[in-house]
Amino acid sequence: MDSQLQPRSVTLAFPHSWEAEILPKRPLIKPLRCYTYPREAEEVERGAMEVMVRPARKAVKFLATFALGFADPAAPTGVWSCPCADDLCAVAGGYAYVVNTLEPAKFEHLAFRPVLEVGSLLKQNLLLFVGHQALLAWGARGEAWQTRRLSSEGLRITEVRGDELHGFGWDLITDREVPFMVDLRTGDTFQAGSGESMR
To answer: Can you give the residue ranges of every domain in the chain?
Structure first.
């Protein structure tokens, strides 16, 4: 899995129609178009990630302000291209947003809070989000799938082999790591090596 956890990085693994620059701070002179994600956020400026976005097709650039989730350095912060070329994924302190750069008022705030890792799976055309207990995949048409709960607390991804993702989840009852496999085409999960569904 190609995961990028560098602070405030721009990862462009997928073809994209836009350009984006993560700004060190909010500009003194704001552009005509400004959007805040999520819209209802309070005190969004505190630690928020400011991104200047230049969409395709001669659309007017806009300033995107993404509310910070957590100030923990383990929570990723950055911008990723998406399977849909017009979409932009921004993660600010583990809060993940997918924005339509041609219609910036249209966005999704992902359910995982926080997202702990982001990976670009080019073969499957998926952007993968790792949470504390499950995985969520984002495709060209939006959310492709979300796994069942794979861990009591914490996931460790070990490899992607073809359309299979392998990893370990922590089981609170037995106090040990349990291996799992995820079918990247469907999000179905299996006990690693057994072929049995983990439903």
So the answer is: 2-110
